[in-house]
C-alpha cells in the first residue's frame, strides 16, 4: 500500500499523524501532546528520574553537612560553634536548593532523547549524563532569573514603592518566558549560559504565548502540589516535594524545546532516523 506523505510546518516530509516510538509523536506537537507527553514520561521514566535526582541530592546533602560540620570544627570558640554551624548551614541549604533545581533540569535534558525514542534508562546512567551539564544549567537558570526579576528586585531594594514597580511586571514576564528554554538548551546542546539564553530567545520568538500556555500550568501545578504536601504531611511532605516535584515543570519545557526544534530545524527527521 502506498504511504502518502505530507509536509510539517517546519519543513521536511513525515507521514501524517505518525506515532512516535516514545512519549510524543514525531511531528510538530500541540499543547495537548506536550502536556500529555510530560505525564507519559513521568509514568514511564518517573522511577529512574526520581532515583537519579535522589542520588544527586544525597551526594549534595553529604557535602552540605560536611561543610557545615567543618566550619563548626574550625570555629575558635566552643561557645560559638553552634552559631557557626547554623550560619553556615543556611547558605549551604540555599546552594543545595539551587543545585536540586539545576540537576532536575539537567536530568530532563538527558532524558529527552530516550523519552522521545522510547528507550530505557537507568538512574545511574541519567545521573552520569546530567552531572557534567549541571553547572551550565545552573548558570542559565540564574541568568534567566536575573534577566527577568533582577531589575524589579533592584528597584524594590532601592525603596521604590511596589505599586510604582508593578507596571514593569509584564516586561519581567515577557523576559522570563523568552528565556524559559535556556536551561534545557544548556543541558541538551551543551551550551554555555549566555549562548543558552540566546538560543532560548531564538526558539521562543514567534511562539511566546504558546510557551506561556505550556510552562505556566506546569509551574502552577507544581507550586500547588508542593504546598499541598507541606500542608497535609508537614516536614515529610516538604521533603517528598523536594524529591518528586523539581523535575516536573522542566518536562513540558523540555518537550516544548523539542517541538520548537521540530518546527524550525527538522529534529523529527533526526529522531526518526535514530529510531
TrEMBL record:
The keyword Transmembrane applies. The chain crosses the membrane at residues 52-73, 85-112, 136-158, 164-186, 207-233, 239-258. Keywords: Membrane, Transmembrane, Transmembrane helix. This is Integral membrane protein.
Amino acid at each position: 500500500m502506498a504511504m502518502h506523505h505530507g509536509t510539517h510546518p517546519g519543513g521536511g516530509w513525515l507521514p501524517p499523524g505518525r506515532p512516535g516510538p516514545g512519549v510524543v509523536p514525531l511531528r510538530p506537537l500541540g499543547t495537548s501532546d506536550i502536556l500529555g507527553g510530560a505525564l507519559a514520561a513521568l509514568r514511564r521514566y518517573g522511577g529512574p528520574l526520581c532515583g537519579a535526582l535522589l542520588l544527586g541530592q544525597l551526594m549534595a546533602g553529604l557535602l552540605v553537612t560536611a561543610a557545615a560540620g567543618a566550619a563548626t570544627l574550625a570555629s575558635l570558640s566552643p561557645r560559638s560553634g553552634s552559631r557557626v554551624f547554623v550560619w553556615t548551614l543556611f547558605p549551604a541549604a540555599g546552594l543545595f536548593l539551587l543545585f536540586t533545581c539545576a540537576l532536575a533540569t539537567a536530568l530532563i535534558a538527558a532524558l529527552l532523547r530516550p523519552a522521545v525514542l522510547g528507550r530505557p534508562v537507568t538512574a545511574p546512567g541519567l545521573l552520569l549524563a546530567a552531572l557534567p551539564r549541571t553547572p551550565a544549567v545552573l548558570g542559565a537558570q540564574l541568568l534567566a532569573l536575573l534577566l527577568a526579576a533582577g531589575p524589579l528586585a533592584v528597584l524594590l531594594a532601592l525603596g521604590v514603592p511596589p505599586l510604582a514597580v508593578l507596571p514593569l511586571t509584564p516586561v519581567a514576564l515577557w523576559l522570563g518566558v523568552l528565556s524559559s528554554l535556556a536551561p534545557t538548551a544548556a543541558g541538551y546542546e551543551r551550551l554555555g549560559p549566555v549562548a543558552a539564553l540566546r538560543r532560548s530567545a531564538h526558539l521562543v520568538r514567534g511562539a511566546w504565548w504558546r510557551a506561556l500556555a505550556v510552562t505556566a500550568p506546569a509551574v502552577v501545578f507544581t507550586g500547588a502540589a508542593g504546598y499541598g504536601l507541606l500542608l497535609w504531611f508537614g516536614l515529610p511532605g516538604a521533603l517528598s516535594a523536594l524529591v518528586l516535584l523539581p523535575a516536573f515543570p522542566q518536562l513540558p519545557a523540555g518537550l516544548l524545546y523539542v517541538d520548537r526544534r521540530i518546527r524550525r530545524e527538522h529534529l523529527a527527521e533526526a529522531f526518526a532516523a535514530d529510531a
